[in-house]
Amino acid sequence: MRLQRTLFGIAALMIAAFEARAEAILIRNATVLTITKGTVQNGNVLIQDGKIAAIGKGVSAPSDATVVDATGKYLMPGIIDCHSHTAIEGGVNEGTVSDSSMVNIKDVIDPTDINIYRGLAGGLTVSNVLHGSANAIGGQTEVIKLRWGKSAKEMAFEGAKPGIKFALGENPKRQGQPQQGLFNSGAAQQRRYPGTRMGVEEVIRESFTEAKNYQATWKEYEAKVAHGEHPIPPRKDLRLEPLVEVLNNQRYVHAHCYRSDEILMLLRVADEMGFKIRTLQHVLEGYKVAKEIAEHGAGASTFSDWWSYKAEAYDATPYNAAIMTRKGVTVSLNSDSDELQRHLNLEAAKTLRYGGLSETEALSMVTINPAKQLGVDDKVGSIEVGKSADLVLFDQNPLSNYSKALKVWIDGHEYFDRDKDLETRPKFQEDKKKLLEKEKTEGQNGSRNQPRPTTGTVQSTEESN
Amino acid sequence: MKYLLVPSLCLATLSLAGGQNPSAVAIKDAHVVTVSGADLPKGTVLLKNGLIEQVGAEVTIPPDAWVIDGAGLIVYPGFIDALSTWGIPNGNPPAGGAARTAGGGAGAGTPATNQTRVRGPEDRPQTYSADRAADMVSPTDNRLEAARAAGFTSAATYPNRGIFMGQGAVINLAGERGRDMVLAQPVGQQVAFRVGGGGMGRAFPSSLMGNISYIRQLYLDLAQYKQAKKLYTAHPSGLQRPQYDHALEGLAESPRLLLPAEESQQIDRMISFGQELKVPFLLYGLHEAYKEIDQLKTANVPALVSLKWPEKPRNADPTEFPNYRDLVMRDQAPAVPAMFVKAGIKFAFYSDGLSAAPELKKAIKRTLDAGLKREDAIRALTLNPAEIYGVADRLGSIEKGKIGNLVVMRGPAFEDKSVIEYVFIDGKQFQPSKDLQQGPPPGGPGSRRPTFSEGEGRGENK
What we know:
The structure holds two protein chains of two kinds. Chain A is α/β, with parallel strands linked by helices. Chain A has helices spanning 2-22, 114-120, 152-155, 170-173, 197-226, 241-247, 260-273, 290-296, 320-326, 344-353, 359-364, 368-373, 418-442, and strands at 25-33, 39-48, 51-56, 66-69, 74-77, 79-84, 124-129, 137-145, 163-167, 252-257, 279-282, 299-302, 331-333, 391-394, 405-410, 413-417. In chain A, the strands form two sheets. In chain A, strands 1, 2, 3, 4, 5, 14, 15 and 16 form an eight-stranded mixed beta sheet that branches. In chain A, strands 6-7-8-9-10-11-12-13 form an eight-stranded mixed beta sheet. In chain B, strands 1, 2, 3, 4, 5, 14, 15 and 16 form an eight-stranded mixed beta sheet that branches. Chain B has an eight-stranded mixed beta sheet with strand order 6-7-8-9-10-11-12-13. The radius of gyration of chain B is 23 Å and the shape is globular. Residues 3-19, 93-115 and 446-462 of chain B have low confidence and may be disordered. The interface between A and B is large, with 68 and 69 residues.
């Protein structure tokens, strides 16, 4: 019986191995932008078992590998967006309380959000999905891979450390002041502390002081239990748990900030309370305090050229990314937008003009640098043997305004193919028309339906799924 | 159309006066759909003392029983609405009462009202978990007539506000007084997500993730509360006493949790969430379940399917291009019940705010048109909800000893031409008016839909 089972097991493994090998993909004759190890002209990349198996000019592949002829095309690592609010259901902010660390973006990822697919179509493969900036301490965050078609759980980037969002400056203090116009409905608006930048700092100090007390209370409880006592356990507080994780370096802090004074404030508070800021987000005045940021060891994730949309954005400069880079800060460029996330390669290109970064340095801003910031640079962010096969094939140099993403792979599985997408559009429009016709003839809601023209109508191709 | 002349005239007059209680009523030689067993093409159902005394092909009818000639009639078990606000006048708990406001929870000295800012989960926002539908039901609810006119004799009825909406009860849709209506309670705790507004000036929680984290925190607090009480009871000396928590007491009583899930990712999410909370749970809504059949089957979660099928909005801009996903949902949702039957997923129907008999009938008919067999639709309105709520030993089929709830029709259920002749509740006879069966109910619309209230969605402070 046992022998039979062992043989069966071996057979199953062999079949699995065979099938895995059958998924081998050979991308031939591309300009391979490895990012970390230079550029390989007319290079081949072999994908096997979801990983990059080989890179070079004369790479051999198993006979049953799928071959992609990439002559004249450019292969780069999948793009990584370090600041995203894509695919969030039911509200980006829990803005009702000053410290909303109990909420978790992981709970509300919507894998059916079409923006995931549109991001893929621009070469995006990984997003750091964040809580909004309404609170000094916001909610917990998650890194996802854009595995379109899979469930929310399956989109989680396994091995990526979880994060938490902080926010400084105008956004978190906006509710503390009585507002006219946009945010004031006329009825008595509940003002939510804080209303000033000093209040924002105090919220962070207070919450972390509470977290330390909470940690001590639990340690005391555990000591008593170890002693054989039966004390009543303290209440498990979902708000303070993630802050304890920050103190234990189990959770990254991503802090939205603008002005140099608040950046310095945060770095000093963190040092004082005994934790690190992993990334500063937006950090538009980061160039002013780049030295301090580098010393602390925080990464900076910023916009390429946004400026002056708020008072605190007034001193922004498109040279921000370049200056901070030259000062030794790991810098990434992010989107903070479902629209911008579709062309982060072009955002990267702007640093060629503003700051004179090299092509590799520019592309690093949306590949290896955000990977480092998210602690996943051992898995993604460059084309190196052993890393996940998260790759994008562009029809020309991705730093060109004319470039288009042709194919996108994540873990060696193809999630986007431009030609296939275009091929499916007529059928999709057909299906849609059929459903509309069916609805019309079934006469729901009686005569309220306007008759729709059935031929020659210019129809939007907005949805592709 | 033969009637035994004298008794049926009595029947007619008395039931027009609102129904009286004969000692025994027999529906003789009708087509009886027992649900629990094979149909009786020519059977008799004898009701006595509010219960089903006997059912069979050969039944001895007591001489003083009122007899209804069952020729041309079909007898079904009375329909059970699996989630509703039937019986609660105005669909809402009675206004006022400090005990009913949110809060009274641990950590807050005074209950949080609209004026006080809710500081977080410790203030138990929008939590009415201790409210009991059984305390709120009354036969004066003017929607009950319309419910009966659709063939409903019982319902799982729930209070209708907040995130933790309160404890439901299975009730009969008629009775002398409210307490006579209650069949079983508590049968579950309904949860709804209150989302929207972007948080500006509103109380916690305003986002979906806020709602979810709050529910999670409340269950953690419940676990700690139970443990604290146990330890304190065993050995109070020297210990801080656990603080009384009204919300947690209510939660502790609830045998199951009802979680809302309409779209496919919501279904996925709620399955994980219910499993994470480690409580028995059901899902309600389920219009996009056609994408989640395997997941629902594996999770083995009872399903409540809303009869309020998604429809094209009445005031849709005719130039606006409809979303493909919405089009598919509107087309496919009524096919979900048939898919459930094929996959072996147990489900029940609920009215979801529909309160007019013809609306309900049409809604169920759509599932038949989409492939659901009539007997499966009947089961989803009778034995399935009874089993889901754990009252199948006394309700949901025509079996000896069960509660005398029946619906007697001329013509098969849900067909346009079919008419409900009688409805029996606790053995008491009702004759739903033809007007109610064909037109809207008297009075206002009644209940609100206890599911998502989506606000502005995305596009806020980033």
